[in-house]
């Protein structure tokens, strides 16, 4: 009911909101499935351009099904929500980035810090996804999108070749639209149903598990060497007990999140369960002092589409776009682990492309082609294309175990004082460590060339 | 505060809110599991929902599912695991992730 | 639901309470902090909502939703309302209040003539460790019949509508049940799990999120000044110091602790009038150290 409108007579049925909103009847301009960062960005763009948008969310509130590995790079929000950093529910601003390599009882850390990252416009931020995703969905709602929670989209409605809506699990649950934007997450049933995911390969997926551990904020400040709203993000290699993957630790205001990302097929083949591997990592001397004594506030798990560029589905169908995790847009390239920014970037591009297509009256795959052009000219696809070799490189055995082992070994010998024996030369140390860890010179050269080429 | 003992799996899962729906969103055809040598679902499921039985079958729960979908992707016996999303508003609810 | 015969069609109110379903416990301090998004309704309240809807349907009446709760209850309240309630009223209750106060505030709304409620359906308990006495107090204040903790509810229609009744089953001792007939107006409360709230239709859910603020009528505002003092800790007797047992050996100390082999004053029986008896009890308690000297 619009404020100021006279109350309807008692006992009269609730007016049909669709008729109220759209003179055309039971069709909206666009349905966005999934109120994560991609979906909310798409709905926000469309609503701002005056379209009727329904944003469907299967959880009881946006973000309730979402979990991630820690850092939101928010600059992509600049165009969507000016001065977003003043209102977004951020836990801490990442001013310290570490890459840690673990091997046996050894740890070698590369540590970068810059307090400049703690001032606007900031670099990375940690946040609880239920808070952040709700905030972004509220932005879409304020712009006029209708956010409908607790509603699972169960399938697509086709008319010939064209997607013309979705079915939901609610009574009277068919909803029609000119365009459907599938932002329905890593498992994207909608993209699969539409036949856009032809080569769905388990090897392109990892399982992420995470503990959110409660500790007083002063303890976190002291253990991680930060103050106020500054925080730390640590990416870890060599901590996954032989299963290809990686680990992470990052700080929230009064919790520390610690988790693992594990190759799905290798995890399935092995005999160690994710929480056992996580416990193993937490006991490593490099990690234990950071998290010990805290109470596990929440355990969580999610699947991550890590295949990158090569693993992406078709992004465009007739009346259908795919964005965010549903389009496999997580960037998992070793030192870079990003997803929320790619989700927002792709969602916003999908929203804009849909707006143009509706304006021109052509919502076929051809009419929606602007989506791909937009993605290619932005960081979303250009980063993914540039770094398309890296996921395989990072998941390879060399990067997973042999390199961390060798790096830790070199550091140990280099810094270890073994008087009265004289210091060994660096060249000899490297040679002996390569031998111990089974790193062959030509492997190293080959992978380094790949890495240099891959990272561009 | 020294030492760090592993919490039990039950304690771990108690930290998560599940609004359990009335109908199961996972079904397993365990006649197919009897011929499966890999049984990836057992280690891959982060919620430990798949449990082997002594007679070679698999019993499963759906109540504490994280809805990650790892089981159905890891299952290499086509059609043994049928997994979809639970009814809207039900299932796992994260608060601090 | 025809607006013309509202006079004849009964109004069934589901009366529910918004609670924090997942407050956060600080295990060191022992304090509870409200969760950010953990609010909702108990299973009993949701089953009351469904019961109210199906009774209203059977009687061709109107179902209204009355909720006690703070402003942030509105989101989850509207989700329940979308299942088919034609009106949603929230009685603004900002925090934890005494049962009697909650009941009085609800009665102020339920008793209002524009609602003209014929049947109030409550859940038999909420999740916030409160007394569960609100339904009985509502019946008292509204001067309605009451039937509480029902296991099954079956609406029976009659002519004229004033003669509608409810046939219900409730528990008796020894796993027996009794079947009762309740005339309206009445207050009933139902157990959780006797009904599952129907899912709202998609169009109703979409309406629910369109103009959130305008759809909930807020009533019976409880001014923050008159809030009951919060009960922060349970009452407990004060601590007192007990001297440790004397004695050289462990054996001696155990003898002293257990009082074995020592002379004890035998129990005595006295006859006194009540005030004298009370004084003697107080004296004895003080003598034995159960009361501080200032009591």
CATH topology of chain B, by name, is Alpha-Beta Plaits
Structural class of chain C: alpha/beta
Helix proportion of chain C:
25-40%
Q: In this structure, how is the largest beta sheet of chain B organized? A: 2 strands, antiparallel
Query: Please, how many helices of chain C?
Result: 8
* N-C termini distance of chain C: 65 Å
Strand order, biggest sheet of chain B?
1-6
Number of strands of chain B: 6
What does the radius of gyration of chain B come to? Answer: 15 Å
Oligomer: heterotrimer
The count of β-strands of chain C is 13
What's the level 1 CATH class of the largest domain in chain C?
Answer: Alpha Beta
End-to-end C-alpha gap of chain B: 25 Å
Low-confidence stretches of chain C: 1-6, 209-214, 224-232
Report on this model:
The complex is a heterotrimer of chains A (456), B (97) and C (295). Chain A folds into 3 domains: 17-89 and 127-198 and 313-387, FAD/NAD(P)-binding domain (3-Layer(bba) Sandwich); 203-305, D-Amino Acid Oxidase, Chain A, domain 2 (2-Layer Sandwich); 396-455, no CATH class. In chain A, strands 3, 4, 5, 6, 11, 12, 13, 14 and 15 form a 9-stranded mixed beta sheet that branches. In chain A, strands 1, 2, 7, 8, 9, 10, 16 and 17 form an 8-stranded mixed beta sheet that branches. Chain A has a two-stranded antiparallel ribbon with strand order 18-19. The termini of chain A are far apart. Helix content of chain A is 33%, strand content 26%. Chain A is an alpha+beta fold. With 97 residues, chain B is α+β, with helices and mostly antiparallel strands. Chain C has helices at residues 43-58, 74-81, 99-110, 134-142, 202-208, 212-215, 250-258, 274-288; strands at residues 11-17, 19-20, 24-25, 32-33, 39-40, 62-69, 87-92, 119-123, 145-156, 165-171, 177-183, 186-190, 217-219. Chain C has a 9-stranded mixed beta sheet with strand order 11-10-9-12-8-1-6-7-13, sandwiched between helices. Chain C has a two-stranded antiparallel sheet with strand order 2-5. In chain C, helix 3 packs across helix 4.
